[in-house]
Amino acid sequence: MHLLYRKDMQFADTHTHLYMSDYGDGCGDAVRRAVGAGVTRLILPDVSSTSRDDMFRLASEFEGTAYPCIGLHPTELSGDWRHEADELMKYRDRPGIVAVGETGMDCHWNRDNVAVQEEVFRMQLDLALELGLPVIVHNRDATELTLRILGDYKGRGLRGVFHAFGGSIETFRQIERLGDWYVGIGGVITFRKASIAETVREIPLERILTETDAPWLTPVPFRGTRNESSYIPYIVEKIAVQKGEDMEKVAETAWKNAHELFRIS
Which of 56, 80, 194, 219 has the fewest CB atoms within 10 Å around its CB? Predict the structure, then answer.
């Protein structure tokens, strides 16, 4: 890839965990590298109480650039999950929250607690409706179940994004019928033979959000190393190539989509 873009272009990373311990004491440096690359809007999904304070601390340090969420990830439901759920609800009235998530269903790592996952997922969907916030949905090996659950909320004003979308165009169309939903496109689109690279050709640009899922899913040419939000331009470039659009148009539209969904300034 030959990354060429105007230095005044702005990008959004709508799913990044730069507050994680993977960055050690360099979380702030990772944010500054992102801003230096033009990635000036960062959505920080929450996963559990173990890293929530770090997330809020980073969002506070970079107010106006990094925006916090509240959520409980489906793979964080082992042990005393009710305590985790109760802890989450303590933050429901905290100012500055822009979304509920990362929440959803994951049948890849654990199929034994599907009922618990669904209960906690629905709890967070109800919370999002109550707070008037969008939802960041994690879906891994659970598409049919996830769509069935969200189908129960159709017509109630629920909105959000399917994070790390890698499904077919048929799955996208099912999501589209649910209402005001976006799909997050990340580094996987740069992988050799990744099916999402073909699917994205048919997804309307107005329904696409750009994301990294840092520190995971690092795009080419950095695959094999820790991911960073500063790599968003590589993802935007690949989307532009696949859709036959200017990189500037993709960046501007994804930026607009992020602002509309998360209602950030």
Answer: 80
**pLDDT over threshold 80, residue 2:** no
**Nearest to 189, CA basis, from 238, 241, 257:** 238
Amino acid residing at 128: A
Query: Which two three-digit tokens encode residue 36?
Result: 């230096």
Q: Please give the full DSSP string across 119-186, using - where no structure is assigned.
A: HHHHHHHHHHHHHT--EEEEEES-HHHHHHHHHTTTTTT-EEEETT----HHHHHHHHTTSEEEEEE-
Picking from 147, 142, 198, the residue whose alpha carbon sits closest to that of residue 176 is 147
pLDDT digits (tens, 9 = 90+) for 31-44: 999 999 999 999 99
Tens-digit pLDDT profile for residues 65-90: 999 999 999 999 988 999 999 999 99
Which residues face 210 on adjacent strands?
A: 185
Question: 3-class SS at 218?
Answer: coil
Alpha-helical segments (H) within 17-65: 27-36, 49-61
* Per-residue burial over 59-94, b = 16 or more CB atoms within 10 Å of its CB, e = otherwise: beebeebbbbbbbbbbbbbeeebeebbeebeebeee
Domain 11-262 annotated CATH 3.40.50.700? no
The ranges assigned to domains in the chain are: 11-262
